[in-house]
Amino acid sequence: MLKFNEQQQIDSVKGALMIRPQIEKAVDEIQKEGFDGLYFIGIGGTWASGMQVEVYLRGRSSLPVYVENAAEFITTGNKRFTNKSVVIFSSVTGSTTEMVDAIKKAKEVGARVLGFIDVEDTPLAKLCDTCISYPMNEQLKFYMVANRLMYNNGEFPDYDIYNQEMEKYLPMALVEVEKKADEWAAVYAKEKYQYYKEHPDMPHYFIGAGNQWGATYSYAMCYWEEQLWIRTKSITSAEFFHGMLEIIEAETPVTVFIGEDEQRPLSERVAAFLPKVCKNYTVIDTKDYELKGIRSEYRGSVSHLVMHAVNNRVDAYMEKEFRHPMVIRRYYRQFNY
Amino acid sequence: MLKFNEQQQIDSVKGALMIRPQIEKAVDEIQKEGFDGLYFIGIGGTWASGMQVEVYLRGRSSLPVYVENAAEFITTGNKRFTNKSVVIFSSVTGSTTEMVDAIKKAKEVGARVLGFIDVEDTPLAKLCDTCISYPMNEQLKFYMVANRLMYNNGEFPDYDIYNQEMEKYLPMALVEVEKKADEWAAVYAKEKYQYYKEHPDMPHYFIGAGNQWGATYSYAMCYWEEQLWIRTKSITSAEFFHGMLEIIEAETPVTVFIGEDEQRPLSERVAAFLPKVCKNYTVIDTKDYELKGIRSEYRGSVSHLVMHAVNNRVDAYMEKEFRHPMVIRRYYRQFNY
MF terms per GO, please (chains A, B) (predicted)? Predict the structure, then answer.
């Protein structure tokens, strides 16, 4: 399998799950002290991860949890944000300008800040009240925070069983997803390149809902646009029916991400509609992956990780088919703008 | 001027401003009774209008005001939504399935509902605690609600002066925007058609921020995609720099909507970046329009209406240049899906 290190993947997820005591300590302190609002602040991919955890909590928890875009927070601000508010964020480099400014602003107001920063030694880390350093697995870390918040709020009675199950089965289950998706992903990438050769201007349409929406949005923008320089458009499954459907024709390239949370029916509706007007669409359904050991009622809470695993395989083959090293950038951080 | 009835436009906005006593009565009742959350619920264009009013209030008011997508509300739901919550929505037809289901669900929970429905006699109207019927001007109605909410909450001391000024000057100011934009819009539409002939697959990129974001999103999706069948992608000015910038090249067609609220610097940054990598971009800046009689500090609160007026002119000429009657639909409400 191309660019795949099974043990490394297992260790990465396992290690993330092992930082649970640190997360629990930080979350318990936050809830013991109380807060008037808890804000996941991000930009680009980290904002998308914030959207994923917000929609997860929205339907399950009465806690006041919100998602804020860092650039909007430093311009428009938020009048409900006070010194009793809490910020949670994640950053790989700890150097994204908008994030640094947003966290500075939050500290000026007097809010408490919990940061997940991959690199320990950054200026951003110094601004955090609590900083947890562990590489990658941002989406998983946010969900671990969410689960603890709900547990402390009496909204997650089987928290212990859930975690035991995840710690025992999730790392291997996600690796198995990658293995199962591998052959399909190679074909998919080949087809995308063939199509692209003939239609370089045509955007690829990505559609998703619920805790797949963050994945849909950031996969289209942060992977295909930023890292592969391929045009995309992403739209939520619900909004698709209120405008975008009109530009779908027989050959329009579309990929639908279907997860297993409460918004699944919205994406199933798209998948049922598409064959009537289009024959160039792909459905990636997390339900097609076994996730051995994880009971059905927990599957929705990891759908976004399953999709991420599938897309790891797609990335590997897209990079190869398009002969486009995913690390290069045309403009991003290449000059001042 | 093509498809332009000056007096009708003036009367339309004037009439909307005249429903203020009805709006004030409804809002005063809501605030007298108190609420734990006020939710603008919408889908498609009405969701976009909700986003515009939410971002307006976010920076100005400590009131708990949120925007909800109707389809997400009926699937994921919102655990913080209670019988002490308030829903505000707008609907032209009163028959959009997701809206009917969302309002039914809100009523089941026991929430109070204020509806703006263009047509008085719809099933949706019967579900409202208060229903205000006046055609069009949805964005203006929402901002009138917002202004009254802030006034009652001690956050809008010059409410009376503001309204006097708007009632005296806004209808004519917006008509003057259309007149000033007309000649430019005719050229813009012609250029878009010329480009489209050569590049039918290429999406047109729309970028905007703050209270222009709802306008940007819905203009791209509800007008160009739905009504003109032209590919588009819309992105916020802040997010543009976190992925989408990479697919902009010299000839990529881009339009930036710049308004005059707190997020203006985010869009100015896009406008400053684009010339370095692209020569096929257009900036529509509300600052270029006089708005006679409206003082500078109020301009940001009507930027979205100014942009709407400019785009009325664009629509008229796009419809003509593309020979595409904007009323026709390929799929929407044409068959069951």
Answer: carbohydrate derivative binding; glutamine-fructose-6-phosphate transaminase (isomerizing) activity
